[in-house]
Amino acid sequence: MAETVAQIDERLAADETTQLSADENKFADAALAGLTPEQRAQISALDVLLTVRGYQTYNPRLEETNKALKMIADWRDKVEFYTFLKSRLPVDTEFHQFWPEFVYGEDKYGHVVVGMRFEQIDTDSMEKAIHSHAPQEDHSSESSLMLRLQGQKMACLTHFKDKKSKASGTQRYKHIIVADLSGLGMSILGSHKRGIIKAIMDVGANYFPESIWKIFLINAPFVFRAIWAVVKPWIHPITVAKIHVLGGPKDSLKKMVESGIPESSLPSWVGGSHPGTPIINILQDMIKENNSDEALTKKLESAVDLV
């Protein structure tokens, strides 16, 4: 008898709490062997786990996993990834203003809910703000300021989930996306705007594998069928299977509650009661905390040197 959706969720949620198996470690060791000594020293065990599991359906798995981890490590070198949570990037306020995302509550398993509303996303103003700082930059370049800003946002979210996992004692590295498609019009089909959105989406898809639990798309407008036809090819089939296209807030709220997300963890614009926290606020707090910790470490090292 085929598994029900609820049974599949239970199984996958249980799998998420585990460390790499002996079989998975073979792929991890092979992928790590392809990195430079400096890259191996910086990449974390969680990074490796996410890559190994994120590429388990690719074929040939060994080759694709090796390529993926090397691609991630090389990208991190190019964008100075390991400074993302230590210092702010230029025009980060404007980037988050024109592409705002909020962290809300958690589902019954402990997956963080991240919400965004497309009517609040203004790619033209975002691009203008970035252009004012880097006028000659190609925004589609993997090391462009726009994509570094998105990478910083994703790094913040990854660290946020990891910190919550350690506090709860249960490993949860996936999150839920709730996206309100109200206001998403035909302009999205224009090649330039489509390219900007695709480039930003690709940061998560390429460099932060195995990070999505489920995606709920609500208030899908009439033109969504055409838009979905454009967006769907950008997304891996495994991710496509996680996407739920829903109707208005009332119907959407019911479906999300049935999937294990309490109303208290959802935003008000879908019928929930969680106020949400802007990701930029979480990011700025992380940067302050990391700098304070680093300053304290230096003071302690200086004190030890004086003894």
In short:
With 307 residues, this protein is an alpha/beta fold. Helices cover 55% and strands 9% of the residues. The model has no long low-confidence stretch (mean pLDDT 91).
Q: Would you give an account of this structure?
A:
With 307 residues, the chain is α/β, with parallel strands linked by helices. 55% of the residues lie in helices and 9% in strands. The chain is built from 13 helices and six strands. It has helices spanning 5-16, 22-33, 37-42, 45-54, 61-79, 92-98, 123-133, 145-168, 191-207, 224-231, 237-240, 249-258, 279-306, and strands at residues 102-106, 112-117, 175-180, 212-218, 243-245, 277-278. The protein has a six-stranded mixed sheet. The protein is globular and about 50 Å long.
Q: List the total number of helices.
A: 13
Give the N-to-C terminal Cα separation: 69 Å
- Strand fraction equals 5-15%
**What number is the mean pLDDT?**
91
Percent of residues in helices: 40-55%
Q: What low-confidence regions span 5 or more consecutive residues with pLDDT below 50? A: none
Overall structural class, as computed from helix and strand content, comes to alpha/beta
The backbone outline, from C-alpha atoms, is globular
Q: SSE order in H/E notation?
A: HHHHHHEEHHEHEHHEHEH
**Largest sheet: spatial strand order:** 5-4-3-2-1-6
Radius of gyration: 20 Å
How many strands, which pairing sense, and closed or not: the largest β-sheet? 6 strands, mixed
